[in-house]
């Protein structure tokens, strides 16, 4: 009978690293216990990363497949290792691949929770408005765009997109930058797409 436990209570870290993940398991052999504990620890680190960096995406992404989790993990370090005949325990530091995590967070299924944000988009020429509309239309995570006001210098829009980092990542992928302006959030074109 196996006991697998991975605790993220002490999970800390910055960026795409999660530290202090407790992982332990029992199995028929020490090797099997180690494999189970590491697997559970990596999954717990993924849950801790989502809770810290993208809580709005946690419910839909925490249960990624084992194969997907392997692709997301860049490396891990083992500390405080304790090995018995049928038991294994350690503390893990897990480093995730930033590009793959960002890519996964940017994919938003239709049922993902979305929020409404009003933005001001500065316009310096007519083509800016055309390009802004094109880029918003090409961003699958943006589920709605409402034009609130349009002048020669700016467009005021209400966007429906995922909350938090996932929404920012979706806009960045479309060549748009969400920032802070004197009158609230701004949306600007970035060089690219």
Following the backbone from N to C, one meets helices and strands in this order, namely: EEHHHEEHEHEEHEE
What are the low-pLDDT stretches, counting only 5+ consecutive residues below 50? Answer: 1-13, 108-113
Tally of separate helices: 6
Envelope shape: rod-shaped
Kindly provide the radius of gyration, computed on alpha-carbon positions and rounded to a whole number of angstroms: 22 Å
Helix content: 25-40%
Alpha-beta classification? alpha+beta
Write up what this structure looks like.
The chain has 193 residues and is an alpha+beta fold. It has two domains: 3-106, no CATH class; 114-189, Alpha-Beta Plaits (2-Layer Sandwich), CATH 3.30.70. 35% of the residues lie in helices and 38% in strands. It has six helices and nine strands. The protein has helices at residues 30-53, 58-61, 66-72, 98-106, 126-138, 164-173; strands spanning 3-7, 17-26, 73-83, 87-96, 114-122, 144-150, 154-162, 176-181, 184-189. Strands 1-2-4-3 form a four-stranded antiparallel beta sheet. Strand 6 and strand 7 (154-162) form a beta hairpin. It starts with a strand and ends with a strand.
């Amino acid at each position: 009978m196996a006991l697998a436990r991975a605790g993220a209570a002490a999970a800390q870290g910055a960026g795409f690293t999660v530290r202090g993940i407790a992982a332990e398991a029992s199995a028929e052999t020490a090797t099997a216990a180690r494999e189970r504990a590491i697997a559970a620890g990596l999954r717990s680190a993924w849950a801790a990363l989502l809770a810290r960096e993208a809580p709005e995406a946690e419910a839909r992404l925490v249960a990624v497949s084992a194969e997907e989790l392997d692709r997301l993990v860049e490396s891990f370090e083992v500390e405080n290792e304790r090995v018995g005949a049928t038991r294994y325990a350690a503390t893990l530091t897990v480093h995730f691949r930033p590009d793959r995590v960002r890519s996964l967070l940017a994919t938003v299924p239709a049922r993902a929770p979305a929020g409404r944000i009003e933005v001001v988009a500065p316009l310096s020429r007519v083509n800016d408005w055309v390009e802004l509309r094109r880029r918003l239309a090409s961003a699958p995570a943006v589920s709605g765009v409402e034009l609130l006001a349009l002048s020669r210098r700016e467009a005021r829009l209400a966007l429906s997109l995922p909350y938090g980092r996932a929404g920012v990542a979706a806009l960045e992928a479309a060549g748009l930058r969400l920032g802070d302006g004197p009158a609230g959030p701004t949306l600007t074109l970035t060089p690219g797409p």
